[in-house]
Amino acid sequence: MSPKQGEVWLADLGLAAKTRPVVILSRNDPEAPRALVTYIPPTTQDRRTRYEIELGNLRFLKEISVANVQGIGSIPMSRLQRRLGSLPTETLDRIKQAVRFALDL
Fold it and tell me: Does residue 39 have a pLDDT over 70?
């Protein structure tokens, strides 16, 4: 399993034994020292802030969602269950810009 940046995966986030979709943010690095993946969680609750990026109507998500960059996190790669699909390049670029804003980079 090698998740790529911009892919959406179903992951076990340890929340009440439920799985959730996550947007992979980690760079593609086959020599990363740890088996961790950094992700952004999608949510259906759009507060229309600079911390949320519209994902549009993706066929592999049940509802229209936004990427919540304030929820950035990392999990062991072993918690990824299956790939759901990929985001358009433009959407991933907007997520990266929002992360830079959120972290003041």
Answer: yes
